[in-house]
Amino acid sequence: MSKSLKNFISIKEALKVHSARQLRLLFLMQRWDAPSDYKDESMKESKAIEAKFSNFFTNVNAKLRDARHKESESDGQRHFKDAELALIEGLKRAQRLVHDALSDSFNTPRALDALKDLVSATNEYMGQRRDDVDVQAIGMVARYVTRMCRMFGLAPDTDYRTIGWGSLDVDKAGADAADGVGSKEDSILPYLRVLSNFRDQVRRAAISGECDKRTLLDLCDTVRNELLPPLDVMLDDQEDGTALIKFIDSKEWQRQKEEKEAKRREKEQQKLERAKAAEKKRLERLEKGKVAPEE
Q: What share of the chain is helix, strand, coil (3-state, %, to 5)?
C-alpha cells in the first residue's frame, strides 16, 4: 500500500468494517518481519479462524455447563481412555509447536496453525464421542487455547477462570447491574416471553384441533432457530433427544445469518442468470433453424 497512490486504509477505517479481533488475527497470520497485505481474501481467512475458535469455545462451554448440571460424585481421579490420552498427547504436541514457533523470531503464523490443528482435533474428538465426552480433557485444551488467545491480545487479560473470548467491549448489562440499574425481572423477561409465546401457540393449536406432530416440531424449530439466538442462547439437539444449551454472541450469530442469506441470494441470482443464458441460447438455435436452406 502506498499513501501517494492512495491505495491504503487506516486502522480507524478498517475498524468500521472489521472487529479489532479480526484485524489482530490478520496480523498474527503474517510474520512481523515480512510484508503484510490487507485484502478481502486475507480478511475472509481471519474471520474463518475467528468463527472456528468461537464455535469451539461455545461447544466446550456448553459441554462443561451440561456436565456441571448432571454432576455426580467424583473420586477425584481422571479416567482417560485411548481417545482422551491421544487428545492430551495432541495438546502437549501443540504446546511444544507453539513454543518452538514463538522462539523462532516470533513466528506467529506457525503458532496459530498449531492452535488451529489442536482445535480441529478436539472438535473431531467431540464429534465422534458426542454423548461420551470427557469434559476434563476438552477443558484442558480449551483453557490452553484461551490462554494463548489472551497472550496474543485476542481476548481480555482479565478473568482466568473463563474459557473463550470474554469481551473486548464494555458489557453494558454488567455495567448497568454495577450501577444498580435494572432488575431480576428485566433480565429474565425476554426469556419468559419466548416461553409464554411458545405455550400460547401450542394451546391455540390444541384448542383448534390442529396440534399434530408436524405443527409441534415447527413451533420447536422456531424457538430454536429464530427466538432464542437473538437472546444469546442456542439449542443444539443431541442424539438422545435432549438439547445442549449454548451461550453465543447474538451479534455474531446475526452477522453469520446475514452472510448465509447473502450467499443464498447470490446463488439464486447466478442460477437465474444461467437459466436466462440457456434460454437465450435455445432461442438463438430456434432462430437459426428458421433460416431457409438455400440461404
A: 65, 5, 30
Rounded to 5 degrees, what are φ and ψ at 235? -100, 130
Q: What is the pTM of this model?
A: 0.70
Angle subtended at Cα 213 by Cα 210 and Cα 214, rounded to the nearest 5 degrees: 85
Place of cell 482417560: 80
Strand partners, 245: 235
In this structure, are residues 94 and 125 in contact, taking their beta carbons and an 8 Å threshold?
no
Residues 98-157: pLDDT tens digits?
Answer: 999 999 999 999 999 999 999 999 999 998 876 688 999 999 999 999 999 999 999 887
3-state DSSP assignment of residue 233: strand
Q: Dmax over Cα atoms in the chain, in whole Å?
A: 96
